[in-house]
């Protein structure tokens, strides 16, 4: 098997100046592809797009997706990102990669040629090879249909707005977006315990921590426990899942096919 050193004997040093051209990107990409084959990386075909800072901020607002359905929150996110970027309070990514087939990589046009080479190797081959060969990704995601589904979701939301009205669809999407960053705990929560049991557990934890210190501290007498006037609840009761509460409120309309499909479009 050939090594990198043996492959580099007949190669010419590439330009590492700050400026880049599309022809130079092709040369770098060919060299990166050669090294990737040396390591036997199995990747999807890649699609490279060079974008401006404004286009990158637009990608930020749509969670990196190239296509999305219309919603006011995306515009709000764009304005927030633009304001922070113009005031120097936030930088932008060198690249964004989409785990699709083909693998789509967005590169910032402000990058130097060295940075472009790094992000092409990182996104087009590193990320690409990882998610293509990750068994969890392959089990739950069809990389070849990601972009097609985004197109379907955008078209479906637009059709629902025409059929049921913009306000109705917007209210539903607002509810979905309010929950989209929260997960659902499928495990059974422990039962509530009394204040006495919680105090006993706390005392047991404190005694365990005390046993971990050195012998000098073990010789100190234990402090007498302070007596409380009333057994006030110091620990709040566990709240029910927010998702479950809202889900019950929406259950009466969940059987409507359009509502269910709209919810599934939110990612």
UniProtKB/TrEMBL annotation:
UniProt superkingdom: Bacteria
Domain SpoVR protein-like N-terminal: 19-240
Protein name listed in UniProt: SpoVR family protein
């Amino acid at each position: 098997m050939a090594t990198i050193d043996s492959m580099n004997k007949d190669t010419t040093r590439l330009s590492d100046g700050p400026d880049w051209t599309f022809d130079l990107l092709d040369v770098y990409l060919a060299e990166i592809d050669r090294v990737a084959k040396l390591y036997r990386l199995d990747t999807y075909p890649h699609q490279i797009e060079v974008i401006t800072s404004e286009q990158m901020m637009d990608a930020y607002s749509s969670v990196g997706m190239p296509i999305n359905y219309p919603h006011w929150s995306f515009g709000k996110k764009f304005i927030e990102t633009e304001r922070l970027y113009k005031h120097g309070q936030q930088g932008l990514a060198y690249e964004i990669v989409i785990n699709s087939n083909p693998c789509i990589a967005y590169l910032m046009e402000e990058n130097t040629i060295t940075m472009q080479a790094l992000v092409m190797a990182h996104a087009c081959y590193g990320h690409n090879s990882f998610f293509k060969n990750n068994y969890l990704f392959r089990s739950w995601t069809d990389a070849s249909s990601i972009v097609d589904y985004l197109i379907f979701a955008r078209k479906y939301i637009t059709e629902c707005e025409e059929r049921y009205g913009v306000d109705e669809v917007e209210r539903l999407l607002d509810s979905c977006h309010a929950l989209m960053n929260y997960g659902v705990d499928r495990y059974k929560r422990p039962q509530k315990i009394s204040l006495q049991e919680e105090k006993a557990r706390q005392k047991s934890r404190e005694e365990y921590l005390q046993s971990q210190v050195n012998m000098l501290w073990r010789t100190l007498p234990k402090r007498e426990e302070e007596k409380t006037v009333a057994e006030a609840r110091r620990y709040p009761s566990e709240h029910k899942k927010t998702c479950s509460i809202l889900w019950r409120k929406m259950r009466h309309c969940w059987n409507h096919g359009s509502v269910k499909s709209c919810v599934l479009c939110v990612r």
